[in-house]
Amino acid sequence: MSARAAGVLFLSLLGISCAAPLIRLSTAPALAVATWRLGCSLLVVGAALLVTGQWRQWRALPRRDLGLALGAGALLALHFWSWNASLRYTTVAASVSLVNLQPVVIALVSARWLGEAPSRRQWRGILLAVVGALVVALADIPGGWRGVATALAGGAAEGGAGGSQPLLGDGLAVVGAVTAALYYLIGRRLRQQLALWPYVGLVYGAAFASAVALSLLTGTALGPYASREWTIFAALAAGPMLLGHTGMNWALGHLPAYVVNLTTLGEPIGATLLAAMLPGIAEVPGVGTVLGGALVLAGVLVAARR
């Protein structure tokens, strides 16, 4: 890996680590946060397209690839929606650890779509990550397996440190992992044909349109919001979106998807430290969450290695 690529991925890691704490500080609905995070970032992307004139690359894009780009945008919107929502129900540490199952999902999908079946070592990593995900989920439920049995029987388990329905939050985080993995796989393919700004312009634009459509369908209010909320939206666009996601989209044009996605492995550390330090959250992860998160990250590292 070149020094330039390593530097971009490091800055991307700093950007995405800010996402979970910022989302937890917002009082806006999860879908509204996702919508305006994308909308604010499009202001910068649109300006870059106009200045560079690279929007002309869209003219030569085959319809199939255009459909893939729009599909990637829809997946990105679903990723933001599900993951943002998970932070309302579970802890920052649990949510970020589970959403970082993305490399495992990439390994599984690659076996069918790209004909790249995981090796035995990678399957061992997948199993380890799944065990870690179960540990994280149980750590969020007082009573462990008894709490799960109570929930399945129709009872109500008490909430964990980060929200009122930890199982729901953990499940939403896993949905966020699947949609993000598919988004990265498509990005790796399309970035071979499109420059950075034309690619993110299509994907972020499709994601914004999808988020607006979902807001209308679900009756989610997109405004008005106080200036504090708009500051959070702008911060999400500047850090996690433009520095984080756009940096990784740049890297997809130079490195394999599994290498780029490994950047997300550092997110739980950065996000958890920020969540513990910020007065508005002050959320210190429990031993079970730390242990489960470590198992998830260890499993993902083993599965993503080649």
Structure characterization notes:
This protein is mainly α. Helices cover 74% and strands 0% of the residues. The protein has helices at 3-17, 19-25, 30-52, 63-86, 92-99, 102-113, 120-139, 145-152, 166-190, 196-218, 227-252, 257-261, 267-277, 287-304. Mean pLDDT is 81; it is low at 147-161.
Separation of the first and last Cα atoms = 14 Å
* Overall helicity: over 70%
What count of domains describes the coordinates?
A: 1
User: What best-fitting shape do the alpha-carbon axes yield?
Assistant: globular
| Integer-rounded radius of gyration | 19 Å
Low-confidence stretches: 147-161
| Biggest sheet character | none
Average pLDDT confidence is 81
Beta strands, count: 0
Order of helices and strands: HHHHHHHHHHHHHH
Treating each run of at least 4 consecutive H or I residues as one helix, how many helices? Answer: 14
Oligomer: single chain
Structural class: mainly alpha
Beta fraction: under 5%
Core attributes:
0% strand, 14 helices, globular, 306 residues, mainly alpha
Describe what is shown at a glance.
By secondary structure, the chain is mainly alpha-helical. It has helices at 3-17, 19-25, 30-52, 63-86, 92-99, 102-113, 120-139, 145-152, 166-190, 196-218, 227-252, 257-261, 267-277, 287-304. It is built from 14 helices and no strands.
What does the secondary structure layout of this molecule look like, with pairings?
Elements: H1 3-17, H2 19-25, H3 30-52, H4 63-86, H5 92-99, H6 102-113, H7 120-139, H8 145-152, H9 166-190, H10 196-218, H11 227-252, H12 257-261, H13 267-277, H14 287-304
Helix pairs in contact: 1-11, 1-13, 2-11, 3-4, 3-10, 3-11, 4-9, 4-10, 5-9, 5-13, 5-14, 6-9, 6-14, 7-14
